[in-house]
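Sample intake sheet
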Amino acid sequence: MVFAVVLLLLLVFVLQNGQPAEVSFLGAHGTLPMGVALLLAAVFGVLLVALPGTARIVQLRLLGRRRMREAGAPEHRPTPPPVNGITVVPLPPRAADQDD
């Protein structure tokens, strides 16, 4: 539902900003509606931040896995979700009660 509202607002923005704007990019020149030009600029800005960030996260995860393998630690396997919705956490064994 929220996604639909955002798309509707985006459509209204593009339609209300239809005046032509001259755009130049890497030697290419053209004219686009102002709303479309701003939308493209926002998309390119997000990609400029998201792609290197994602690449760095993947790089760090691979490095962490490699270090875990070199240290001889077992690989992490996620615990399956509980079937009945109740999470069971195993407790450490208790010391035997000693009566002195």
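Comment: DSSP finds two helices and two strands in the chain. Helices lie at 2-16, 34-71.
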